[in-house]
């Protein structure tokens, strides 16, 4: 059986908003089918040859989803505690700011991708959402999109499932815009966070990946261009805490 695809849990709720990240597993049956046609086997071989990044490591694309799943499966029990420790609780302020920007009204059809809690659950792939076109008023994703194998494809899917006039909101780690703070942040990220992960969660490797995945994620301007390329309009962003994180916003017109 093929490796798990890059995937996430969605909480789809009209009046609630979810925060925590959890991994989920989707298993694909591709070249492992004994009777698969030659064209399918060749396509599978071509996919295996395509590489992507997992932190600073280069891996086959088909393996990344499984590796990301293992990371969040490993850190799930201590996820909230580690978030509080790593950010000194500031992550809660960032999420409250995202919620304030969203300002959902009763009856709003909201899709929260890479969420851990919610009223109604759907299991699926961020790059191939199991929803009809023009379904949701708001699409949110917090600290999840950098773990997706094909970010551009996930953005296109976000655009597809939003109604005309719908809003895309993304809270994600970004690029620090102050040179001095950037050096201190790098020191803290690479020397302290993995140690905290080992002491509190018993997991150095997952938090090393966390730091590396943050460094690999595009800058505020680069991500803004990616959102625009997916078809969104009026794309803006706000950097928080000297650019440690940013909230990007865009509309489907």
TrEMBL record:
PROSITE patterns: SAM_MT_UBIE (PS51608), UBIE_1 (PS01183), UBIE_2 (PS01184)
SUPFAM superfamilies hit by this protein: S-adenosyl-L-methionine-dependent methyltransferases
CDD domains assigned to the protein according to its UniProt record, in alphabetical order: AdoMet_MTases
Superkingdom as given in the UniProt entry: Eukaryota
Membrane topology: Peripheral membrane protein
UniProt key word S-adenosyl-L-methionine: yes
The protein's Enzyme Commission number: 2.1.1.201
Binding of S-adenosyl-L-methionine, residues: 117, 125-126
Alphabetical UniProt keywords: Membrane, Methyltransferase, Mitochondrion, Mitochondrion inner membrane, S-adenosyl-L-methionine, Transferase, Ubiquinone biosynthesis
One GO-annotated biological process of the protein: methylation
Localization annotation: Mitochondrion inner membrane
GO CC, any one term: extrinsic component of mitochondrial inner membrane
Catalysed reaction, written as an equation: 2-methoxy-6-(all-trans-decaprenyl)benzene-1,4-diol + S-adenosyl-L-methionine = 5-methoxy-2-methyl-3-(all-trans-decaprenyl)benzene-1,4-diol + S-adenosyl-L-homocysteine + H(+)
GO molecular function: 2-methoxy-6-polyprenyl-1,4-benzoquinol methyltransferase activity
Main location: mitochondrion
Functional pathway: Cofactor biosynthesis; ubiquinone biosynthesis
NCBIfam families: MenG_MenH_UbiE
Subunit structure comment from the entry: Component of a multi-subunit COQ enzyme complex, composed of at least COQ3, COQ4, COQ5, COQ6, COQ7 and COQ9. Interacts with PYURF; the interaction is direct, stabilizes COQ5 protein and associates PYURF with COQ enzyme complex.
Cited function: Methyltransferase required for the conversion of 2-decaprenyl-6-methoxy-1,4-benzoquinol (DDMQH2) to 2-decaprenyl-3-methyl-6-methoxy-1,4-benzoquinol (DMQH2).
Family (UniProt): Belongs to the class I-like SAM-binding methyltransferase superfamily. MenG/UbiE family.
Protein name (record): 2-methoxy-6-polyprenyl-1,4-benzoquinol methylase, mitochondrial
Name of the gene this protein is made from: COQ5
């Amino acid at each position: 059986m093929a490796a798990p695809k890059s995937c996430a849990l969605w909480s789809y709720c009209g009046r609630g908003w979810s925060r925590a990240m959890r991994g989920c597993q989707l298993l694909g049956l591709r070249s492992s089918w004994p009777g698969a046609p030659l064209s399918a086997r060749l396509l599978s071989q071509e996919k295996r040859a395509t590489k992507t990044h997992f932190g600073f490591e280069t891996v086959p694309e088909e393996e990344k989803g499984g590796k990301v799943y293992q990371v969040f499966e490993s850190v799930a029990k201590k996820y909230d505690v580690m978030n509080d420790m790593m950010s000194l609780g500031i992550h809660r302020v960032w999420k409250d700011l995202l919620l304030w920007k969203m300002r959902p009204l009763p009856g709003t059809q909201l899709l929260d991708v890479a969420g851990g809690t919610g009223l109604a659950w759907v299991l699926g792939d961020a790059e191939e959402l199991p929803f009809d076109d023009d379904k949701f008023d708001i699409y949110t994703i917090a600290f999840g999109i950098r773990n997706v194998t094909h970010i551009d494809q996930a953005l296109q899917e976000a655009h597809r499932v939003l109604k005309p006039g719908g809003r895309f909101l993304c809270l994600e780690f970004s690029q620090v815009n102050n040179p001095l703070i950037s050096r201190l942040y790098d020191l803290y990220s690479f020397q302290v966070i993995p140690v905290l992960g080992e002491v509190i969660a018993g997991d150095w490797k997952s938090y090393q990946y966390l730091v590396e995945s943050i460094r690999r994620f595009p800058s505020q301007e680069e991500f803004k261009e990616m959102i625009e390329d997916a078809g969104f309009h009026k794309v803006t962003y706000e950097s928080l805490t000297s650019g440690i994180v940013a909230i990007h916003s865009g509309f489907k017109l």
